[in-house]
Amino acid sequence: FFSQAKKPRNPNHGSIQKSDIEYFQSILSESEINTSDLSKYNVDWMSKYQGESKLVLLPNSTQKISQILSYCNKNMLPVVPQSGNTGLVGGSVPHYDEIILSLQRLNKIIDYDTNNDIVTTESGVILENLNQYLSQFNTEAPYDLGAKGSCFVGGNIATHAGGKYLVKHGPLRGYVLGLEVVLANGQIMNLLNKSRKDNTGIDLKQIFIGSEGSLGIITKANLLCVKKAIEKNLLFIKTSSFQNILQIHNIAKSEIGKNLAAIEWMDSYAYKAVIENIKTAKEVFESQNKIDQSYYVLIEINTNFNKDLVVEQFYNSVSSVEGLVDECVLAQNDHQFDELWKIRELVGSACGHIGKVFKYDISLNTSQMDDITKDLRQKCFNLGLTVGYGHIGDGNLHINISCLDKTKEQQLENQIEPYIFEWLSKKGGSISAEHGLGLMKADYLHLQKKPEVIDCMKNIKKIFDPNLILNPYKILPGI
Ligand code: FAD
Ligand code: S2G
Ligand code: ZN
Fold first, then answer.
1. Is the separation of the CB atoms in 62 and 220 below 8 Å?
2. What's the pLDDT score for residue 289?
């Protein structure tokens, strides 16, 4: 694991005693309490953050979560809510020995309103399972991410997940119509709602979306779903410069318009990392030579009619510009569609095969994406492999830097942080576009938000969680 500088422990927080276990045994079944096989719960997806929790609770109802939090609040026992544990900022694992409250048993889909395409679900449903359920109604969730096979809807709402379809649908928070949340004192806040419009007072549910487990535990959601497109086409274009990517992006926006579902880019380092480290990933293009510095862009076009017209029109536009398209592959079937998307979705995992990964998920002006990537590549060249990729459609860059020498992880981290965050705060942009702050970025929040804004966030946190038992040491500095 990465050397993890521990923050000072909150002196008011207690550690689990025998009497606590006895209490939990009095309200939970045996299968809802785990005190032995804890390793997978204590370590995050990247094996970068490691907790020392002695207890995982897996309650199967909102009522039980309410009892657990009420007890923990009274006894000053800190709690980390955990869903799919695919978070990438250390938010879903303990910093010390906090209790892990897993949502995995809160996995029932409650109902589907066919007239309005609104699903009501418990928060512990895996995104991919939700989509399988929704396919009978020819609908799907209004977002998608590479972690779909593991992440839960509640975790997605708690991190306000972005993903490739944000270009088509807009932010997830627009589709969360209602929530049920259990507060730190055990109070069940029923904000469930199936109205598309409801302007009756402060829209409280919004405060929990993106709160990363710091204000309450999301237990149910009303989610507005979207009709599946009849035709989904994917073009994978190889080009010779990042400037060309920007030009292709512009043409896509004007030519494809509302039918543009997703547009993602990768540099040659990201592309090669996947081809060389993921067994199932096959070379897409004929003319692939090892040293080429190509750039790649994936464009998904969704249509309900005239699909060939839209795809052809776009392809003719980009290929008619001299030197813009070196090669282009159009997915010929659903299998190839999925395989091509996997090449983009597996960049993060491929980087993990090369060495421990430092991940940066930043918002910035799209024209600067390649510059900062090259700048960091230059700065870290002898310590790490730097790849650039991500959601160019909404200005979200992902940079992964894989450590090439295990003994120099700390040296590499010092090379990158706080440089990248300071660079960003000077240029404008966000130090966290979609992954949240978690443990990783809480102490950099001052680079992003004014002191009075951070103070206001802390005051709101103290209204909802005065004993600071929910997900301590994360999101906000010094809490
Ligand atoms: P966890 O990791 O378990 O928890 C995340 C945070 O939310 C933690 O702070 C936790 O305490 C809190 N939390 C969890 N459940 C609840 C709850 N019910 N109530 C309150 N708080 C809760 N993210 C993106 O935004 N876009 C992407 O494209 C994307 N792609 C990814 C691809 C891969 C391969 C991987 C591994 C991750 C990716 N992620 C992406 C990051 C991650 O998947 C998202 O942040 C996701 O929303 C986390 O969901 P989870 O269920 O795993 O939550
Ligand atoms: C993505 C997460 C992947 C990673 O692929 O869009 O949000 O490992 C990222 O950084
Ligand atoms: Zn992403």
1. yes
2. 63
Query: For ligand 2, atom 5, which residue shows the shortest CA distance?
Result: 345
Residue 330: closest CA among 348, 315, 319: 315
Compute the average pLDDT of residues 335-355: 96
Axis crossing angle, helix 369-379 with helix 419-427, rounded to the nearest 10? 150
pLDDT in tens, 184-228: 999 999 999 999 999 999 999 999 999 999 999 999 999 999 999
Q: Which of 14, 27, 93 is nearest to 56 (CA)?
A: 93
Cα 7 to Cα 473: distance, rounded to the nearest angstrom: 7
Return the pLDDT at 286.
77
Which residues is 327 bridged to in the sheet?
238
Name the residue among 99, 102, 14, 116 with its Cα closest to residue 51: 99
323: left (phi over 0), alpha (psi -120 to 50) or beta: left
Report the C-alpha gap between 40 and 225 in whole angstroms: 32
**Antiparallel, parallel or unpaired: β 226-227 and 327-330:** unpaired
Q: What is the pTM of this model?
A: 0.97
Query: Which of 145, 344, 398, 402 is the pocket-test mutation for ligand 2 (most atoms within 8 Å of CB)?
Result: 398
Cβ proximity of 154 and 124 under 8 Å: yes
* Percentage of the chain lying above the pLDDT 90 cut: 94
**What digits encode the pLDDT tens for the residues 391-407?**
999 999 999 999 999 99
Asked if 183 and 204 count as a contact pair (C-beta separation under 8 A), the reply is no
CA of 379 to the centre of ligand 2 (A): 22
Residues 235 and 311: beta-carbon distance below 8 Å: yes
Centroid of ligand 1 to alpha carbon of 19 (angstroms) = 32
Contact criterion met (CB below 8 Å) for 366 and 249: yes
Spatial distance between the Cα atoms of 167 and 159, rounded to a whole number of angstroms: 18
Taking the CB of residue 31, how many other CB atoms lie within 10 A of it?
9
* ipTM for the predicted complex: 0.99
Residue-averaged pLDDT of the chain: 96
Rounded mean pLDDT of 140-169?
A: 98
Q: Which residues does a 6 A CB cutoff place in the pocket of ligand 2?
A: 88, 146, 348, 359, 361, 390, 398, 400
Cα 360 to averaged position of ligand 2 atoms, centre (Å): 9
Question: If phi over 0 gives left and psi between -120 and 50 gives alpha, with beta otherwise, what is residue 438?
Answer: left
